[in-house]
Design a protein that fits this description.
The protein has about 180 residues and is an all-alpha fold. The protein contains five helices and no strands. The longest helix has about 30 residues.
Length: about 180
């Protein structure tokens, strides 16, 4: 026992639990916003006419299905790490999913922020993608609201990457052979 009255290993467990709960809340809000946008909501997307891409091909629908599964894992896994039933998840699988989620959302958000910065500064008028604002948003001169909405969404992606990464770091430090995967 340490001077604070907690077990010596309680620090990493508490930090893992906090990070996992923060990642869970992030994923719930992230998913709720996507459901809202899918249903036709516009808040957070700006006022450009073409900010939500349409699924027009079979490959678009397959991609959508894969992303839906990723949303589900992204919500359930952090929650599982805070619950006794989450002990059934192999440590390697939890860490693989957390690091994969971290990389995907951090790179997506970071690339979006860099793309906007390159366009905004004029260093690369077509950003990282090689596309014009008109090709992306349907408006050759999008409003500040549309641009800043995109920055907000991209920053939220980066935040998710940080939260999944922190959860993976703390879980990796805490989980050792013979210890449960959960963040109890």
């Amino acid at each position: 026992m340490s001077g604070s009255g907690t077990a010596a290993g309680a620090g990493p467990a508490r930090e893992t639990r906090r990070a996992a709960l923060a990642a869970f809340v992030w994923a719930v809000v992230f998913t709720a916003m996507h459901v809202y946008w899918f249903a036709g909501g516009r808040f957070g997307l700006g006022d450009a006419p073409e900010v939500v891409p349409r699924a027009t091909s079979a490959s678009d629908r397959v991609q959508g299905a894969v992303i839906t599964v990723m949303f589900a894992v992204g919500i359930v896994l952090p929650l599982a790490l805070t619950r006794p039933w989450g002990r059934r998840i192999p440590r390697w699988a939890a860490l693989f999913c957390l690091w994969t989620g971290c990389a995907l959302v951090a790179v997506r958000g970071g690339a979006g922020l860099l793309d906007t910065a390159l366009r905004g500064t004029g260093l690369a008028p077509h950003g990282l993608t090689g596309l014009t604002y008109e090709q992306i948003t349907g408006d050759a001169h999008p409003s500040a609201y549309t641009i800043w909405s995109g920055v907000g969404v991209d920053a939220y992606f980066v935040l998710g990457g940080i939260l999944y990464g922190l959860t993976a770091l703390w879980l990796g430090r805490r989980a050792r052979p013979g210890r449960p995967v959960t963040a109890e």
